[in-house]
Specification:
CATH class: Alpha Beta
Mean pLDDT: 84
Radius of gyration: 15 Å
Strand order of the largest sheet: 1-2-3-4
Helix content: 25-40%
Number of helices: 3
CATH architecture: Roll
Largest sheet: 4 strands, antiparallel
Distance between the termini: 22 Å
Structural class: alpha+beta
Order of helices and strands: HEEEEHH
Number of domains: 1
């Protein structure tokens, strides 16, 4: 893993703290041979008041050896509190950011 990618992952880990979870990449599975890192983050709305939050998303991100030339794979898990239309809009927005940033480190921009 190149140093810039490692630093980007460490920054995400520091920002998301307890909402960040890293996974061991299985080396025996042929579909993961190009994957170097898999992690999930729990995303909740940024609010300034103490109120109950009913919207959240767990995003599973798989980074390949070819990142940043090949965008990370995004898998949307446990999407709560969004309508199907809102969920599709969010997916489209994140996918567009990844396409626009292809060839550049993009995870921090995507996740902030």
């Amino acid at each position: 893993m190149i140093e810039e990618v490692r630093e980007e992952i460490e920054a995400i880990k520091a920002i998301y703290d307890k909402d960040y979870e890293s996974f061991i990449v299985p080396k025996l599975a042929s579909f993961t041979e190009n994957i170097i890192h898999i992690f999930t983050i729990r995303i909740i709305p940024a609010i300034s008041q103490s109120i109950d939050i009913y919207t959240s998303l767990i995003l599973r991100i798989s980074i390949s050896k070819s990142y940043p030339n090949v965008p990370p794979s995004l898998l949307y898990e446990e999407c709560k509190g969004l309508t199907e239309k809102e969920e599709n809009e969010l997916k489209s927005l994140l996918d567009n950011v990844m396409k626009e940033r292809q060839g550049h480190l993009s995870l921090l921009i995507l996740l902030l």
